[in-house]
Write a structure and sequence with these properties.
Length: 191
């Protein structure tokens, strides 16, 4: 449930949220504004400050019509950590709403992130990440560990059909011989 104040007239319904929560997430503050009550079409603007686990936050943005997490091939159940998120949504109030009709903007600060079995059987752990997502794409930047390899991650994911590339990962870190052969399975001489 949510706690807040509702103000309305013949054109607009405004809800100022002071606290609340649902599905494991806490709403610290927020606003919901529905406009066009006196017109054929109504639009909604949602602006929320949300705290919770990475798993519950990803599950939220995976709901239809968004489906962002499934598109990336991530399973929210395979993620851990905490997130503070500023989420903004704008869309027409329509029963047959599609992903393209929803304007999305979200920024998250993620602490102690873990994603299991990401690449070469290794987990990402200890991640302190900044995530930004909108309708065009997603950027994730921060420090993580791949197994025992301390790294800096910069991940860009582009959405939509017309894009220069789909995914780009820049991972920087130092890899010792034991990590190179044991964890990564790269059995060749160092260069």
């Amino acid at each position: 449930g949510l706690n807040g104040t509702v103000i309305y007239d013949e054109k607009t319904l405004s809800i100022k949220i002071s606290s609340g929560g649902s599905n494991g997430l806490s709403v610290r503050e927020g606003a919901v504004v529905i406009t066009g009550l006196d017109e054929f079409d109504q639009f909604i603007d949602i602006d929320l400050m949300i705290d919770g686990s990475v798993r519950d936050t990803l599950a939220l943005v995976d709901h239809q019509p968004l489906g962002y997490v499934s598109t990336l091939g991530l399973d929210p159940a395979a993620t851990y950590g905490s997130a503070e998120t500023h989420l903004k949504l704008n869309f027409i109030l329509e029963k047959t709403l599609t992903q393209d009709q929803v304007k999305v903007s979200a920024e998250s600060t993620i602490k102690d992130a873990t994603i299991t079995d990401v690449v070469l059987g290794l987990d990402i752990t200890g991640g302190d990440l900044n995530l930004k997502v909108d309708n065009q794409g997603m950027d994730v930047v921060g420090k993580v560990s791949f197994g025992t390899i301390q790294s800096t991650l910069s991940w860009r994911e582009n959405f939509g059909d017309e894009r220069e590339f789909k995914s780009r990962y820049l991972i920087q870190g130092s890899v010792g011989d034991n990590q190179r052969t044991g964890e990564l399975g790269f059995d060749f001489p160092p260069f």
